[in-house]
Specification:
With about 400 residues, the protein is an alpha/beta fold. The protein has three domains: about 140 residues, Rossmann fold, CATH 3.40.50; about 160 residues, no CATH class; about 70 residues, Orthogonal Bundle (Rna Polymerase Sigma Factor, Chain: A). The protein is about 45% helix and about 15% strand. The chain has a seven-stranded parallel sheet, with helices on both faces. A hairpin with a 4-residue loop joins strand 10 and strand 11. Helix 2 packs parallel to helix 3 and helix 10 packs across helix 14. The longest helix has 22 residues. The structure holds nicotinamide-adenine-dinucleotide and magnesium ion.
């Protein structure tokens, strides 16, 4: 029987690649739900092609247009944040792919877990905000949470068959982003248009900026801590600019396993859908002769402070990673609008981590409140920083 999939965030980079995987394998997969925040042109096109049971459009003002186009085709249309969380409860869904960006992923993920749906998760921010609750709820409901993020999928794949073997450490590989090797001075005036040009991956705007600041790798350290139950000192970052080795696990006997391949998110997406099986496909194959050298270098965490700030938040624990995430979301948004400079992304996060009240053992409501408070404080700081630009 085919697996029925809800694609949350179907119009994004991960969402559209997930639909490519599904399109190629109509026997294996069926789209049950599609959701988008505002790109209704693409959402409608996808819905007409994949004929889901239901769609959710995020922005209320766009509901009428979507409904007009899809209701005649017997596709249910829902609107808003609450619907996005609730839609995952549908009985007919087997797997929920969380391809939403940012904090918006948290509630739908938790609700899907609580309704015992298998989760394929690309949305790393959910782990950063509330990893403890997500892993606790997944264990309590006996729900598999399969990573889609390429590094975490790599580690997950390396761990297949190693259930009883403790991990000594993991190496998260990092491409280094578009500004690798630059000094602080050289980063002062870099514009978002340059930051959006990633050398190896074609991704959404937010993760592209995160990749340039290396906050993406910082967020991934926190994501890995929760997914694989590791201490911060068991997680190392190594810059590997070719993005062929997607990450590595070192076991207690010193043996290191790596997962490799050309950079293509369709592979981890497909694996999350078919796990524990693998499915034959026609993705382009890696050729060793094309890559005579694979290189590995230390990251520069002093210049690319996304890494050091994330370790700091992780070591502090409590709601601090949630503060880090919210401040980063606001800072990235402001940077994309040219309201702040590249290095100000770091200072905004650092200041937010000092200004927001620390909660040692937060519950869900505390995370929601922390997210709100941090956004408010970060916005106020941006206003104070560049009053003439806002
Ligand atoms: P994207 O910006 O391309 O797409 C985001 C999707 O979420 C869109 O469909 C959009 O409509 C929807 N969305 C945006 N804001 C929303 C909101 N507030 N409420 C509801 N829906 C909203 O992002 P992406 O690059 O596909 O990344 C998605 C997630 O996957 C991120 O967490 C990212 O870190 C992670 N990820 C992405 C890649 C990649 O290659 N793109 C790789 C690894 C991990
Ligand atoms: Mg990644």
């Amino acid at each position: 029987m085919s697996k029925r999939i809800a694609v949350l965030g179907s119009t994004g980079s991960i969402g559209t690649q997930a639909l490519e995987v599904i399109r190629e394998n109509p026997e294996q997969f069926k789209v049950e739900v599609l959701t988008a925040q505002s790109n209704i042109k693409l959402l409608i096109k996808q819905a007409l092609e994949f004929k889901p049971n239901a769609v959710v459009i995020g922005k209320p003002a766009l509901f009428d247009k979507v409904s007009e186009s899809l209701s005649p085709h017997d596709i249910k249309v829902f609107v808003g944040e609450e619907s996005l969380s609730q839609i995952v409860e549908m009985e007919s869904i087997d797997i929920v792919l969380i391809a939403l960006v940012g904090f918006a992923g948290l509630k739908p993920t938790l609700n899907a877990i609580q309704h015992k749906k298998q989760i394929a998760i690309a949305n790393k921010e959910t782990f950063v905000v509330a990893g403890e609750i997500v892993t606790r709820e997944a264990a309590r409901n006996k729900v598999p949470v399969i990573p889609v993020d390429s590094e975490h999928s790599a580690i997950f794949q390396c761990l297949a068959g190693e259930h009883y073997n403790p991990i000594e450490k993991i190496y998260l590989t990092a491409s280094g982003g578009p500004f690798f090797g630059r000094t602080k001075d050289e980063l002062t005036n870099v514009k978002s248009a340059d930051a959006l040009k990633h050398p190896n991956w074609d991704m959404g705007c937010k993760i592209s900026i995160d990749s340039a600041t290396m906050m993406n790798k910082g967020l991934e350290v926190i994501e890995a801590k929760w997914l694989f139950n590791l201490r911060p000192d068991q997680i190392d970052i190594i810059v590997h600019q070719q993005s062929i080795v997607h990450s590595m696990v070192q076991f207690e006997d010193g043996s290191i396993k790596a997962q490799m391949g050309l950079p293509d998110m369709k592979l981890p997406i497909q694996y999350a859908f078919t796990y524990p099986e693998r499915l034959a496909n026609r993705f382009k194959r890696f050729n060793f002769a094309d890559y005579p050298v694979l290189s590995f270098k230390e990251p520069d965490a002093e210049t690319f402070r996304g890494i050091s700030l994330a370790y700091e938040a992780l070591n502090k624990g409590g709601n601090m990673p949630c503060v880090l995430n919210a401040a980063n979301e606001i800072a990235v948004d402001a940077y994309l609008r040219d309201q702040i400079g590249f290095l100000e992304i770091y200072s905004l996060i650092e200041q937010s981590m000092l200004k927001v009240d620390f909660i040692r053992n937060p519950e869900l409501d505390d995370y929601i409140e922390t997210d709100k408070e941090t956004r408010k404080k970060a916005r106020a700081m941006i206003n104070a920083l560049k009053p003439n630009k806002i």
